[in-house]
Structures are given as C-alpha cells and as structure tokens.
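4.2 Preliminary Data

To establish feasibility before requesting continued support, the project team ran the inverse folding procedure on a target of 198 residues. The structure was first converted into the token representation described in Section 3, and no sequence information of any kind was made available to the design step. The complete token record follows.
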C-alpha cells in the first residue's frame, strides 16, 4: 500500500498541535517531528558533538540540553537557526521515514506535524501540506495563555518563521483557525473525507 504523507504545519500559536491531537484521537497515524527532533538532540552522540562544535559546549549541561542557552542562540538570528536545522533535519527525516516504513506501514494516511516545513524546505517530502493559520493577535494570546512563551519570546520566534502570506501560496489545504476548536475539528473532518476518497 502506498502511504499518503500529509504535513501539518503552521506558525507559532496557529493551532497545528490542536489539529494533530484531534486527528490522533480519531485513530489516525500522527508523527510529531518536534518530539523526534528533541529526542535526537538530547540522545544522539554524533548530533550532540556537532551542536557543541557549532554553538559551544554550553549547549549541553550535565543534565542534558541547555534549552535556554540554545534557544537564545538559534532565535537570535535566522542564520543560526538554519545551521541547527541543517544538523538535525537529515536525522529527523530518517526517523520519520523509518516510522512510516515500520510502525505505520499499514496506515493509508500518515500525518506529520512540523512547524518548519517551508523554513527547512521540506515540502517535497510530503504528498500534501495542511497549513493552519491564525491572526497574529490570536496566536500571541494563545501562546501566552498556554504558558508556552512570554510575549517577547513569542515575537522573537515569530520573526524567524516565514509569514503566512507566503506559505498560503504553497499549501494544499489552508485552515483559518481564529475561532473555536469545534470549527477546526469540522475542517479536519472535511479533510479526512477528502483524503480517504483519494
């Protein structure tokens, strides 16, 4: 069986994780590339050395990844973020491919949640890209409410993402998510109907 690989992407606070979790609750295969990336960053010795070589030994402490230091480094410039992505993404893609070929081999549709599909130039890896978008103020409010970031941290991270206006030109499905979760779920159900009919 040929799998249909569908990326779920969106800028910070857009609601892509809410969409991914809903699809998972409907028993669809969902791979979280951010989770894989963090796992590789903290456990792969070759990657750890590459990160230390690039950003310094401070990138790690005795207890693991120095998240605060690394975040300050990579979100201070898009160039540094690109350098980290170039270290991590080949391994992340390998891990995703392995999951597709093994754990999810019998699943017709496989969703891959990834915030940086376009930033990392990964769109060609997927059959379809679902882009979740929301107004800036909505995304900011959600991120602060969830306790994910301060307003300043949100703005710094948001600056390092390609604006929605550019991404909508490339995406196959676009979900405007300014409203309730129920509204997003209704769009997800329509997406499932469409993908299952292919």
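Position-by-position output of the design step:
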């Amino acid at each position: 069986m040929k799998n249909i690989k569908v990326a779920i992407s969106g800028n910070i606070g857009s609601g892509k994780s809410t969409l991914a979790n809903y699809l998972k609750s409907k028993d669809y295969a969902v791979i979280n590339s951010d989770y894989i990336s963090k796992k590789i960053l903290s456990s792969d010795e070759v990657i750890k050395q590459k990160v230390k070589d690039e950003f310094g030994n401070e990138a790690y402490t005795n207890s693991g990844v120095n998240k605060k230091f690394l975040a300050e480094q990579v979100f201070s410039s898009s160039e540094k973020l690109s350098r980290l992505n170039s270290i991590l993404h080949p391994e992340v893609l390998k891990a995703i491919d392995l999951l597709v070929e093994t754990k999810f081999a019998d699943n017709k549709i496989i969703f891959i949640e990834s915030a940086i599909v376009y930033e990392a130039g990964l769109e060609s890896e997927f059959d379809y890209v679902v882009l979740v978008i929301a107004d800036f103020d909505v995304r900011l409010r959600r991120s602060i409410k969830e306790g994910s970031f301060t307003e300043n941290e949100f703005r710094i991270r948001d600056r390092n993402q390609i604006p929605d206006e550019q991404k909508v030109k490339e995406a196959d499905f676009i979900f405007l998510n300014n409203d309730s979760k129920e509204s997003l779920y209704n769009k997800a159900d329509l997406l499932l109907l469409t993908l299952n009919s292919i």
